[in-house]
Amino acid sequence: MLDVEKSIGEIWNLYGRHQLSRTFDLPELDGWAWDVPQAGPGIDVFGDVADLRVLDLGAGVGRHAARLAALGAGVTAVDASPTQHQRALDRYPETPGLRLVCADAVDHLQQAAPYDLIYSVSGMPFLDPHRLLPALATGLKLGGRLLFSALHTNSAGDGPSDSVTARTEILRLPGTDTEHRMHMWVLEPHLWEDLLIDHGLVLDTVTTIDSPQAGQPLSYRLYAARRPEQRARWATSRTPR
User: Fold this and answer.
1) Is the pTM of this model over 0.70?
2) CA atoms within 13 A on the CB side of 111
3) Helix H segments across 23-77?
4) How far apart are CA 136 and CA 77, in angstroms?
5) How do residues 152-197 score in pLDDT, each as one tens digit?
6) Is the CB of residue 84 less than 8 Å from the CB of residue 56?
């Protein structure tokens, strides 16, 4: 059953409320997952995070943020959904190194001190990059890093868009047959790179994360970028296509 189209905020509040009502909950992370279990880079992509000031954008229940906090990072986990935020509060009421915040990502970045590391497990494509990236660029310290995963090809086999525009994707609530339509920015890698460069960031790597299930076209990309220590006096070269 396909529900009427709702805003991103309404959908994630509905998702969080649905999850709060369930007895099942996800296990703690032993390693790391960029949306596709048993696929893609692990936690090693972050390097040593001890004593780093870290931001998790779109933190949801907070499992990833708690994993980095356990390694000695000071992690702020931000989610705009009150119900998702409540799930995190219920699960991690007093976790050393972890601060849970219910706020709009851009509003938080504009008010917070810059971070050493910002990451997002597939949260960025739900926000207009023209609104988010200016705040991300200034929300990183000089030399700071940005890592985020983004949908590339959905489970129906639809590949990324060739323009910076939102399109409709489908979210199905776990344990139900109800599908919700939502807007997402599912972009070609060169478009993400152009956006990052336009806002003063340098893209270092793009890593493919494919589903390990045979015949499943679902695929993500992991983008690793950074804010240069100082702005170069010449144009930044792009990575090979």
Assistant:
1) yes
2) 8
3) 63-69
4) 15
5) 999 999 999 999 999 998 877 666 677 778 889 999 999 999 999 9
6) no
